[in-house]
Design goal:
The complex is a heterotrimer of chains A (777), B (287) and C (162). Chain A is α+β, with helices and mostly antiparallel strands and 777 residues long. Chain A is built from 19 helices and 28 strands. Chain C has six helices and five strands.
Chain lengths: 777, 287, 162
Amino acid sequence: MAKPMPVRTVAEESLIGKRIPKMDAPDKVAGRTRYVQDLNVPGQLHGKILRSARLHARIVKIDTSKAKALPGVHVVLTAADVDQRPIGVRKDHMPLKGDKVRSFRDEIAAVAADTPEIAEEAIRLIEVVYEDLPPLTDPEKALLPGAPLIHEDKKDNVAMTFDYANGDVKQGEAESDIIVEDTFYLHYVTHCCMGVSGIIADYQPNGNLLLHSNTQVPFLHKREFAEIFGIDPGRIRIIQPPIGGGFGSKLDIYPFEPIVVFLAKAAGRPVKLVFTREEEFVASPTRQPVILKLRSGAKKDGTLTFRDCVTLHDNGAYTSWGATTPFVMMQTISSLYRVPHCCYHTKAVYTNNPYAGSFRGYGNLQATFAVEAHIDKMADALGLDAFEMRLKNAQDPGEVTPQGMHFKSCGFKDCLKTVAARSGFSDKRHAYRVAESAPGRYKRGIGMASMLHVGGGAKIYPSDGCGTILKIDDFAHVTVMTGASEIGQGSETVLAQLVAEELGVPLSAITIVNNDTDITPWDVGVHASRTTFIAGNAAIGAARIAKTKILAAAAKVSNIAATDLTLRGGFVARAADGQVIMDLPKLLRSIHFQDKADLVMTTFYYEPPSKHQDKEFKGDVSAAYAWATQAVEIEVDLWTGIIRLLKVTAAHDVGRVLNRLGIEGQIEGGIVMGQGYALSEDLMVREGRIANPNFRDYKLITAPEIPAMDISFIESMDGEGPQGAKGVGEAPAICMAAAIANAIENATGVRITALPFTPENVYRALSSARGQAKGAA
Amino acid sequence: MTLANYAAPGTLEEATALLRQGSCTILAGGTDLMVQSKAGKVRFGDTLVNISRVAGLGGIAVEGATLRIGALATIAELRESDVVRDRLPALWRAADKFASGQIRNASTVGGNICNASPAGDTLPPLIAHGALVELATRPNGKVERRAMPLEGFITGPGKTRREAHDLVSAVLVPLPQADTIGLFEKFGTRPALDISTVSVAFVGRARKGTVSEARLVFGAVAPTPLRGAATEAAIIGKFLDEATIAKAADTAAQEVKPISDVRATAWYRREMIHNLTRSVLTDVARR
Amino acid sequence: MSLAAELPTRRIAFTLNGSPKRVSVPLTLSALELVRDLLGLTGTKYACGEGECGACTIVVDGKSLNSCLAFAVDLDGRMVTTVEGVASDPALARLREALVEAGGVQCGFCTPGIVMQAKYLIDSGRATSRAAIQRGLEGNLCRCTGYVKIIDAVAQAAGVNA
């Protein structure tokens, strides 16, 4: 009788919740990663764009003769030379402007030349004759009679309007014991991705168009580019090189992209165009500036009664995603804390200012700034504790808001309680309030704010889904082809982690392919914090089908029921005790080379169970929702207005922590981005011109300025989320400014309703509140 | 005029000879020159003269009662120098708050002086210390050096008394007496990396709150660093009680000539001069 | 303004990542343009071109500086290190691993500049505390990470208590 084989077991090892380094980090640390700016295509020319020298003017004449004559210049294009169609949310935006210019970033001509320097020189040689038109740079004047008409084919300067209501605001007012009203001014900031915008357009010999593009929505872009150029979308391929930051800046099509394609077509050569940093500031979309008027009410026991919100959005010269921020803003106005009655209205008006796009948080920073200011105001007026009033109105799991959002998993109250406890909020707030009236140069304060954002996608497009194709080779190496792009946030690593969890293989055995529209299945794009949730579920779906197939084959070979088997550590094992049954690669080879040869190849398309909103913007638009609360402790220098952030205490309802390293990085980065939005970033648009298009005078937060951070995760285990997880990418940036505003009020007694809280702005507000200049008492 | 030649002299003799021969643009650390060149704002001479290899132009050394700071001494070297930190703390503070580590490694004291920016951070402390700028020139075969007060050397934004044939070779700082107080406050939200919005340098002596000597220089509030003569007059010989400090701060705010630009309005700059002067003098009063 | 390419050039000889290099450079060419455009080493990044962001940081004769501000002609006779040189340097394996393990990399565009500045801080003994590291990195902008894990990583690599 043969000696029995030694029994081998493999322990269960889950990667969920562990600290997993990003898969592409080693390449990035070595400087090996090639971003679009680093790519060069054989035979490429370099493109440059001539932008308008006037704010609002008719174009009388464009003389490109000197530019064309410059040695090394291959193509010079103006609107007259191209067959173009408009781009953008409202298709009001021609890539090359021929009749008139409406802002300083307007693209008038484009050049393709042998070197960027020659292209730059050629741009300087183009002569344009303008006929000035009256400027319009104040959105509050856009609808006055006699205001200059920005788009002359429209009857007025209204670009878009939004109206939403639930309940009856009049009834809410009648039930209120306190009503507060303020106008809030939210300013221009911009993404400042460290990698500037760039693109390479390369027509292939068969006439297909290949784009090396950093778009966050490659499949939508395919369709839109096809419309713009009148070609079959099936003949467009987009390859996404690693991206030097996104934050929502690459969600729309911007003129430079079709312009580069026009240049490539005309030149018969590939064309590469990369912005300078100044051009990046001047020509990139901004965050949506908003003038927001809010009326809020509550009963004397602190129960919220109503919110009535009216906003004016400066739409700029052309419409991009900024005009659609009301979709998100009304969710916060109607559903951040329980409010029975709500009314919301936005007018987005054309001006000659820069236009706004989508930017991490997508209007939620602006709306939360107003809502949370009023919670504090009402709490103080009613003599209630600011934390307790928030807790009283926070929703519970299972609630459905009047707007139709179903809060299946909801860690809101846990977020509030955790932050209040860990920051010592109520005691500190009281102590700082008492200290505020004492003499002294430095004052401390603490402020709290929460946020609500979609955490399971957002069904605004016909589909909010993502496809995955998965294959496993003869050596148990798994390739996952996913439609979801990696924009630096770590989605690639999370997807690998989720697949590893299902198939019991190490991360090193997984390759993620996510950057080529010829290979990967459709995904609507990276936005709305949706990628972990939706791409994650798509990857899990494909992995589970593969697992089922593998275990069925293993059951046949081993005579153990498939339901008693599992995949672990690169083996097929008995689920109950981990006893190794067979080597996974060996099983895969046996499937491949059996009589009926087969491979393990699976597909899955995940569409979240959310709903499109109806015409009244009501509906359960996301498969899950997420919350966060942040308390920010500050020190104000009354003599300069400088605010120092001492500590941020944050609690985020993330459903479940998947990659602990990655999620901490998102929160930390979002907190610092929120800090910049609140304190130092200010895109100064003066009469339509950006006065500070550089890092010298547009101040990003630097390493020595960051606060101490205490971050907690609330794991509310969402039923639909992959391993229970929800989206988190935007959340940490959203409530920082609101919390800081409340902290300033706590420290100084002054409520500042306009951003940013730069030292001069704070000093001015404190001075006028105290009715004195030349320093404080 | 466009550049036609390049030279990287190794000695002061060679460098000063080159400056006599044709129109030259001097390159030291390059941190200002490159930015200006890329922006198209440099009228280049005929020869780019790289002085960063000229022997004897570097270093920070005590020579008797003077601290000799070579023109090529970098801001990083100032920041790392024990004698600067201990004896010239106002200058040390300015070096500490200067730009970034990368820029401090390349920027030179000579460059900071010749660039003559209204916001140049080393200038107010150097002027407050009564520093002299040493110029080297070679009129007939021999290198000649002469020194003149830094105060007054700078005549406008980007303009100095240096003639085309002069090379700034050093800054000579009289070493102050042991009980000298040196302070430098620069407005900003960051420890460094901010171009000055306003700055205040104070070098002086005080005993139990009474000021015996004071030199106050304001930065970024006039076309050149501004000596606060009226503010000095308001405190020299006086006991720094709250009222005196308040009056001096008011005087300072009126003495300066700030502009409004993207960094700040003139109003705010005046407020900050007032408050920073008050802060500096409060500090002095405590010593 | 004349094109840099039309300006007179100067032949320079220097050591690049440990190997000798000879190249002709236009007089006003920046070191960044030399490294990226003439020598094809794309690890060093352009992110502002004005010395405000640190993405272009290289090390020359042991000191870190912004290559976008340095004149290429001034590299003559010097020892120049770019991130490509650090990638294979065993002495810096600890720094590279720390950045990866600590999560100090997201989009990675600022990373080469951070690596070079961190190398300088560690090699020159300036990474003495977390606060010193923060000051040492004040010239390097990052938009993704909020700096926390970058500081963690450099502190780890420098053997400093976090």
